[in-house]
Structures are given as structure tokens and as C-alpha cells.
Amino acid sequence: MPTQTFKLNGKSVTVDADDDVRLLWVIRDLLGVTGPKYGCGINVCKACTSHINGKAFNPCSVRVADIEDNDEVTTIEGLADTAEGDLHPMQQAWIDHDVAQCGYCQPGQIMAAVAKVKQCRDEGRDVDDSAFEEIRNICRCGTYNRIREAIKAGAEHM
Ligand code: FES
Ligand code: FES
Fold first, then answer.
1. Ligand 2 geometric centre to CA of 156 (Å)
2. Statement to judge: residues 7 and 47 lie in one domain
3. Looking at the domain assignment, is residue 80 inside a domain?
4. Where does a domain end: 51, 75, 99?
């Protein structure tokens, strides 16, 4: 079986996995990192949203062989280490706004929020309703209003 190497939350990892295995299963089942959630497996629900080299992506739709050795994959477990303090400002904003209901979609929502704020800054755009409309993460509990309030608050500290 081939070996696959990439960086996960700041550490180089190597696993035995067939090339066609989707990265989400490698992260969750082989490496035991379960923050990225399985919802649809076909890049629709966005529950698995994580970062690759600082940008949002969905590991359920990426073959593990398509990840390069030096690609930096960050999940919700590694997000705090990308900022000062014990929590990333977006995580703190989520707590302050009591966003989560069942919680299942929330790791992906936070990862999508952080990536969207960074993208807006890189492009010189405001973090506003039009930016929020681009976030396609589904929340079956309907926490969308609290998510938007938390993103605004978190962005102020990023
Ligand atoms: S599980 Fe990845 S997008 Fe739904
Ligand atoms: S908090 Fe339940 S699915 Fe979003």
C-alpha cells in the first residue's frame, strides 16, 4: 500500500493509504482527528471544511494522493495555534455569541469563517453580507444569524 505524507496541524504525518482514499477518511479514521465532520461526502454540506495552506477546502472531495508533502492541512484542532492566545479570535467569538446548537456543523463553520475573513482582507473587501452569502456551510439547526454576528465580532480581532 502506498504511503502518503503531508502536514497536519503543524506536524508532518505519514500514513499507509491507497491513493484514491479521500483525505477526510485519512484525517478522521487513520489519524484520529475528528474535528472535520462527515455530512455528505460529496462537497455539498461543508461540514468537513478545513484549511489547506490557509484556504478553505473540503477534504471529503480530495484524494489523499493529491496532497503534497509540504501542503499544510489545518483542522479545527489546529486553528488556535495559528493565532495568539489560547483560542483563535473566531473561536472566542463563537463562545461569546453562544452560536452552537447541536454543534455538528460548527467546526466547519468556524473554519469557513476564518478563511472567508482572510480572503476578504487579501482582496481588500469588507466582511459584509455579500461575503457571508459566499459561505455555503449548511446548518440544520438554523444558527445562521448567530454565525454572522460571531463572524463580525471575530473579524474585529483577526
Ligand atoms: S462532508 Fe465534506 S462537504 Fe459534506
Ligand atoms: S448547530 Fe446543529 S447543524 Fe449547525
1. 24
2. yes
3. no
4. 75
Cβ atoms within 10 Å of 31's Cβ, excluding its own: 14
CA–CA separation, 86 vs 88, rounded Å? 7
User: pTM of the full predicted structure?
Assistant: 0.97
Q: Terminus-to-terminus CA distance in the chain, angstroms? A: 42
- Here the contacts of 118-126 (C-beta below 8 Å, separation 24 or greater) are 118/54, 118/55, 118/158, 119/55, 121/158
CATH number at residue 100: 1.10.150.120
Pocket test for ligand 2, best of 98, 136, 139 (most atoms within 8 A of CB): 139
Task: Determine the atom of ligand 1 nearest the C-alpha atom of 44.
Answer: 3
Range of the domain at 60: 3-75
pLDDT in tens, 3-59: 999 999 999 999 999 999 999 999 999 999 999 999 999 999 999 999 999 999 999
Q: Which ligand minimizes its atom distance to the CA of 138?
A: 2
C-alpha cell at 152: 463580525
Look at the chain and report how many structural domains it folds into: 2
